[in-house]
Every structure is written in structure tokens, then in C-alpha cells.
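Work Package 3 committed the consortium to producing structural models of liganded targets before the mid-term review. Because experimental data for this complex are still outstanding, the team generated a predictive model from sequence and the ligand definition alone, so that downstream docking and mutagenesis planning could proceed in parallel. The input record is reproduced below exactly as it was submitted to the modelling pipeline, together with the SMILES string for zinc ion.
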Amino acid sequence: MGLFDKLKDVTGLGLNAEQQYQRAYEKGVFLQPPNYEAAAKHFSSAEEKFEKDGKNEMAKRAHANSLLYSMIHTKSTENVNSLISFLEQIPEIEFFGSQTEMVPTEKMITEFRALQNELSAEKAENITEKINGYKKAAEIIMKLANESLFYLEKLNVGGPINSAMMRGLYYLAKADYVNAFSIVYQSPEQAQNYLQKAAVGFRQAQSKDWADKTDCHIENIKVKRHCWICGREMQGLGFFYNHYPANTKKYHKEMVEGAKQDIGMLEKENSITLCTVCGSAVETQADIYATKRMRELREWVEPILNSHAEMINRLDSRLSHVESCAHRHTS
Ligand SMILES: [Zn+2]
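The resulting structure, written out as C-alpha cells with the ligand in place, is given here.
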């Protein structure tokens, strides 16, 4: 190897586009352990060189590879839109980790498109947008039926990745889950139905965390309790009724039982159940009283504090006067 070749090998200076592309594999992808960050940089340099040579097809492939390896290195999904748009411009690309095995970009695009919809559903503040995002993600990913999700697995995105079908079910369950909370204040019964559907979906998708979380919400949302004050029956703990601290004795339980009323009102010790209407009325009124009392207290205490402050100021100036006299006498 001549000196120039050695220099080329160490620095990468003077490499042509193909050599630079090759370098992404040699100094990145094929290293043990692989260095995907370096690979991404070499692909990016190769892209520039291909562009200068007017080899647009290769430039796009280099760019797509640069984005892909960088994404998998950082586990960041922020460039997913850009990656999709480059993959869409090329029919095939090297399989991840290989330089010789070419694969059609179509399946990759499907995986990333589903992810793109999932991410926008997660970000969306509008409920309809959120639900539609998850439904769209499900529709896209389910096209891959029972195939495994190679790229989503590499990105550690969370949720099931062992089959496209399972991920689709997971997305649909997410849509039902969001739907439940969007209508709970209209109809807790309907919300409960959606949550039950979501729980089944999460179980089918083998997403235990989400299934358990959903079960927990179902437990709260399905319970009906009477309000101690107005006597109306309400459904949904935390939505239409809550527990409030109160002095309750054994006598109250016996009385409620004797009258064949809802013993659930006293299910928690030293608490009663109040519907959120009565509960909020009590809270609001208490707040008004507290504010009023605070104002009265301030009106009473402020003049006292002010006169104390004045007195302290007076004493302070007298003290400094005395001190200055004392200094004069000692010096
Ligand atoms: Zn009430």
C-alpha cells in the first residue's frame, strides 16, 4: 500500500462515492460490535459524492441508509417521515446488516408508515384524530399479516412486535381505549363497553401491561354507587362519584342496611360517597368560605403587622443613633 493509499484508508479523503459507500459497511455495519453511527456518516458522505457524480438513484439509497442506520443507532423516530419519503423513491435496498442481499422497500415502508401513524396518534390532541391515527396504523400494519416486524423491533418502540397482526390488534385496542375516555362523561356504560373491547384486544395482542391497566379502569368505571346527599345512583368512581371524608359510625351502616339502601355509600371507613355534582357543590362552597375567611384574617392582621414594622424601624433608627454617640465617646 502506497503512502497515499494508506492516507486514504485512514482519513477517507479522496475516496470516490463507491469506496465511501463500501466504507460505511467496513467501518460501521460490519464492525464487531457494529458502529451504526459511523455507518450513517459514511453513507451520508457517499450520498454527497453520488450526487456530484449525477448518480441520483445511488444518492437516494445512500441517504435512506444513512437515515435508517442513524435511526437504529439513536432509537429516535423523529426522522421517520423523511425516511419513508426516500424509501418511496427507490424500489429496493440492502437488507439491514447486509451489503449484498437486496430487499424490496415496500415492506419497510409499510412498517414505518404504521409507526408514523402511531406516532401522530400519540401526539394528537384532538380525540378523533387520535382514534383515526391508531385505526389507520392498524389498517396499514395488518397488510403484513403474520410477518414479524424487523425494524420496529430494532427501534424498541414498545408494544407487540412479534407479528404484524398482533400489532394491528394492539393499535385497534388503543383506539377503543381512547374512545372510552372520550365518551365517559357522556355515557359511562358506553365507555365501559369500549374498555372491555380494548381489554380483549390488548390480551389478543399479548400486551399484558395495557390489558392490566385497562382492567383497572374497568373496575372503577363499572361500579355504581348512590350519593349520600342527593340519593341518586351514579356510575364510575372518579368520574361520577368520589369518596369524601366524613364522620361515620356503626349506627349509620346499620341504618342504611335496615332501610335496604346502598351500603356501598359507606364502603370506606370515615368516608361517604358523593356524586360529583354534590361533591363539587360542597368543595366550591368550602372554597368560597375559606377565601372569605382568609381575606378577613388579612384585613385584621395587616394593620397589626404594619404597626409592628413601624415600631421596629423606629427602634432601629434610635439604636443606630445611640451607637453613633457611643462611638464618638469611645474614640
Ligand atoms: Zn348527589
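Reviewers should note the following from the model. The chain has two domains: 3-222, 224-330. These observations will guide the Year 2 experiments.
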